Amino acid sequence: MNPNETLADARRALKDWESAEPGSREESEAAERLGSAFGALDDWLGKGGYPPTAWTAPTPEGPARRKLRETNLEQIGGADAWWLLTELKRELT
């Protein structure tokens, strides 16, 4: 099971369902595909599977992470190192 592919299938089915003529065969088939994709994702997540990538929020980069990314750690010391460690701890908790 690939949750990313299943979510993409569900999104395509939703678009197809929204654009289908009400009561048509296309609407019924799209609704069935949407239900199947949703059921597969629900089963996957219920068994402890990881969520689709699109559902995971990126972690915001605070000033300490930015400084860590931009700094050569071999050159940092003293007060800068203390500030960086303190801020990283605050951002990560």
Q: Give helix and strand order, one letter per element, not per position.
A: HHHH
The helix content is 55-70%
Q: How large is the share of residues in beta strands?
A: under 5%
Bulk shape: elongated
Structural class: mainly alpha
The number of distinct β-strands equals 0
Structurally, how many domains make up the residues?
2
How many strands, which pairing sense, and closed or not: the largest β-sheet?
A: none
Uncertain segments? none
Cα Rg = 23 Å
CA distance, first residue to last residue = 33 Å
> Helix tally?
4
Kindly report the average pLDDT value.
Answer: 83
Helix and strand arrangement:
Elements: H1 3-19, H2 25-46, H3 63-70, H4 78-92
In short:
By secondary structure, the chain is mainly alpha-helical.
Describe this structure in words.
With 93 residues, this protein is mainly α. It folds into two domains: 3-55; 63-92, no CATH class. It is built from four helices and no strands. It has helices at residues 3-19, 25-46, 63-70, 78-92. The radius of gyration is 23 Å and the shape is elongated. The two termini are 33 Å apart. The mean pLDDT is 83.
